[in-house]
Amino acid sequence: MPELPEVEALAGFLRERVVGHAVARVDVLAISALKTYDPPVTALGGLTVTGAARHGKFLDLDVDGLHLVIHLARAGWLRWRDEIPARPVRPGGKNPLALRVHLDDGSGFDLTEAGTKKGLAVYVVRDPDDVPGVASLGPDPLDESFTPAALAGIVNGKRSQIKGLLRDQKVIAGIGNAYSDEVLHVARMSPFKIASSLTEEDVAVLHEAIVTTLRDAVERSRGLEAQDLKGEKKTGLRVHGRAGQKCPVCGDMVREVSFADSALQYCPTCQTGGKPLADRRMSRLLK
């Protein structure tokens, strides 16, 4: 799933490629991906793209005051094309193409989604906050207002595990499964540590891990072509997706806890005092 660094890079990529160009037309291939109908998607035709921004994991194209807001979900992606065929694509079958945006110079981009679980969401709105997921976002961890004191206020009194709290978009915007694993590894903190148990020092360490991990990932992704961002994310991860491999910090084996629809990875030596976590939901340290 694209998270804050990848979406930030996509916004930068689109600022270079689409700002100043008019939208020739938009082809919707997967009606289920289109979540709004007023204004209609056809209203974008003939308007000029004036900006590209990010809200958490949402991508936002400003098109002369209308906003094309995109959430790529678990398996969605944006694919740039220097030349797009003028002939409309037929929907249906196993075609992963959900939406195609044609620009006035013949270039454009496709929104695709692999797999059977469809979560890609596209909105055409007058204000980004008209998208419920955008309106309910927590603070952006790369914003100057996200200070250690702000994080202390977030975790104060929260009885949830810190891994889940970091992934909650209403609490902190933009961090998903992958970067929450990375942040907690940098912070040397168990994913099952209860948020309210964090000391002032813990909060400071966690805040530093959040900001540095995300900023480093953003810098690595800056300027890359859209098709290269997935590969950059994968190579830059230290523990997420690396179960069974050696921790790059201590050499211990990276372990995994699996859930119904996701999994987390961590290093026992770095994060849990050398004790592996039981591989079950709401796990506790093995005795």
Description:
Belongs to the FPG family. Residues 238-272 form the FPG-type domain. One of its GO terms (molecular function) is zinc ion binding. By secondary structure, the protein is α+β, with helices and mostly antiparallel strands. It folds into 2 domains: 4-135, N-terminal domain of MutM-like DNA repair proteins (Alpha-Beta Barrel), CATH 3.20.190; 148-271, Helicase, Ruva Protein, domain 3. Helices cover 27% and strands 20% of the residues. The chain has 8 helices and 10 strands. It has a 4-stranded antiparallel sheet, with no helix packed on it. Strands 2-3-4-8 form a 4-stranded antiparallel sheet, covered by helices on one side. It has a two-stranded antiparallel sheet with strand order 9-10. Strand 6 and strand 7 (108-113) form a beta hairpin. It is elongated, with a radius of gyration of 20 Å. The two termini are 34 Å apart.
How would you summarize the topology of this molecule?
Blueprint: H1 4-17, E1 23-28, E2 49-55, E3 58-63, E4 66-71, E5 76-81, E6 97-103, E7 108-113, E8 121-125, H2 132-135, H3 148-155, H4 162-167, H5 177-187, H6 200-221, H7 229-236, E9 255-258, E10 263-266, H8 268-271
Antiparallel strand pairs: 1-6, 2-3, 3-4, 4-8, 5-7, 6-7, 9-10
Helix pairs in contact: 1-6, 3-6, 5-6
CATH topology of the largest domain: N-terminal domain of MutM-like DNA repair proteins
Question: What CATH first level of the largest domain would be assigned?
Answer: Alpha Beta
Terminal Cα span: 34 Å
How big is the Rg? 20 Å
Strand content: 15-25%
Question: How do the helices and strands follow one another from N- to C-terminus?
Answer: HEEEEEEEEHHHHHHEEH
**Strand segment tally:** 10
Q: What would CATH call the architecture of the largest domain?
A: Alpha-Beta Barrel
Tally of individual helices: 8
Considering DSSP H and I runs of 4 or more, what fraction of the residues is helical?
A: 25-40%
